[in-house]
Design brief:
two-stranded antiparallel ribbon; seven-stranded mixed β-sheet; elongated
Length: about 300
């Protein structure tokens, strides 16, 4: 089965524009059922550095907790080609912490800050782990006993957050869990050689997530999606060309710098030769003066004879 490649931002956004599909995907990533989901204000895409594109999607989600209760959380998804621009990721996250809209009404009408969960889809992965999906979960511990505190505190929930990182380039042939089988649709090893806009899914896909496949299948028929992939190809090619030209410019600048340093060294050496020559002249001048003095003294002695 051929499906649209969600490595492209336009396809990824099309995929999550379907609430049912978004709930399926987010529930699998969070390891908790998402009961309700609503889009929040979204920064669609921005250039943050050469060859780095970031798509940002925000959701308000009601998730089911282990005890059967529910909790409203803010889910921020950022999809990027590389994890290079950490400062931009921190800035985006900081804006969520600072946003006065990210509040909910608690018991007694108290306004509470929404807990935040961040999910990063990275085209190029992290340095020190090849795990396709990394979950960073907070734990409350008694510092004296090391015992885990099971009941979360609103104060802590408002100031810290859990994190999930999906390393797209580490998904190849990783089908150990249902989540990894679900994420098969991001495996770039399945991209068609002649058309990277498409993935060819030959393996059995988990039955509960068939709607994900159907959504990506429908994306192929959407002209706006196809055109968007073409635009992304052109943009990425332009950025890569810009990178190449910048690298070439840096090499030229480095070469010019080396020439200047060599020229300065020649000037220094020339100055050293001139100084040495001046020193020789000074010595010769002193020697001549001494010789003249000796001749004058000898003349005086001869005149007295």
């Amino acid at each position: 089965m051929r499906i649209a490649n969600p490595i492209y931002d336009v396809v990824f956004k099309y995929l999550l524009d379907d609430e049912k599909v978004a709930r399926l995907l987010l529930s699998a990533l969070l390891g908790r059922e998402v009961l309700e989901l609503a889009y929040r204000a979204t920064e669609v895409r921005s250039d943050i550095a050469p060859s780095v594109l970031v798509l940002r999607l925000d959701f308000a989600a009601t998730i089911r907790l282990e005890d059967g209760s529910s909790k409203l959380v803010l889910i921020e998804i950022q999809k990027a080609h590389t994890p290079l621009d950490v400062l931009r990721f921190r800035k985006n996250l900081g804006s969520q912490y600072a946003n006065p809209e990210n509040l909910s009404l608690g018991s007694g009408g108290r306004r509470l800050a929404l807990p935040i969960v961040t999910i990063y889809f990275l085209g190029e992965g992290l340095e020190h782990t090849d795990a396709p999906v990394v979950r960073v979960n907070r734990r409350y511990l008694d510092a004296a006993t090391g015992e885990e505190i099971r009941i979360p505190e609103p104060f802590v929930e408002a100031l810290t957050h859990d994190c999930i990182v999906v390393q797209i380039n580490r998904l190849k042939d990783r089908r150990r869990t249902e989540l990894e089988r679900l994420l098969m649709v991001f495996d770039q090893a399945l991209a068609e050689r002649g058309d990277p806009h498409l993935l060819d899914i030959q393996e059995d896909y988990p039955e509960p997530y068939q709607e994900v496949l159907r959504r990506l299948l429908r994306a192929i028929a959407e002209k706006g999606v196809r055109d968007g992939m073409d635009v992304e190809d052109e943009l990425l090619a332009s950025l890569l060309d810009k990178d190449r030209k910048m690298a070439e410019a840096y090499k030229v600048i480095e070469t010019i710098g080396q020439v200047i340093v060599a020229k300065d060294q020649v000037i220094v050496e020339k100055d050293q030769v001139i100084v040495a020559k001046d020193q020789v002249i000074d010595v010769q001048s002193l020697a001549l003066k001494e010789k003249d003095r000796q001749i004058e003294e000898l003349k005086k002695r001869l005149s007295q004879v």
